Amino acid sequence: MATQSSPVITDMKVIPVAGHDSMLLNIGGAHNAYFTRNIVVLTDNAGHTGIGEAPGGDVIYQTLVDAIPMVLGQEVARLNKVVQQVHKGNQAADFDTFGKGAWTFELRVNAVAALEAALLDLLGKALNVPVCELLGQASNARLLPSSVICFISVIGPKPIFLMWKIRRATMSGISCGIRKQ
């Protein structure tokens, strides 16, 4: 019985990126005035490219770089096998690395999620199917095209004009929240 093969992964790049971000105050303090990400770019022998991303940092970057030999040469359709192999790959070491245990394990999960997103992107392109259909029905299919969430910051007293804007927005299907500054 003849079997049909899927495209094979021929290249994997892990690209750390950083960019400017506003320094926002949150419950844990303030985060830096920049963001970092690790971008995973997979290429298959059919010429398709799949992209995934994860938070930045050395542990996630190194986990993805270490995964390259496990990913190259694999069939795109076998993405679950690839994801499981990378996830279990050096899992025991996660609890020894820098003595951080569960935190290092969480970083591995982020790295694997970036790889899985890139693999799903490749599979969707190979099958000519949107990734949301691979995962199930699109979650926003029931929303009106004009549905958006609107947050209005209020500086100073402008209640009449503001209430008019909110009423007009909600009548057209926009959800609004008000934050007084």
From TrEMBL:
InterPro entries: DgoD-like, Enolase-like_N, Mandel_Rmase/mucon_lact_enz_CS, Mandelate_racemase_N_dom. Its EC number is 4.2.1.-. This is Glucarate dehydratase. It comes from Escherichia coli. It comes from the Bacteria. The keyword Mitochondrion does not apply. The lineage of its organism: Bacteria, Pseudomonadati, Pseudomonadota, Gammaproteobacteria, Enterobacterales. Coiled coil: none annotated. Residues 39-136 form the Mandelate racemase/muconate lactonizing enzyme N-terminal domain. Keywords: Lyase. One of its GO terms (molecular function) is lyase activity. One of its GO terms (biological process) is amino acid catabolic process.
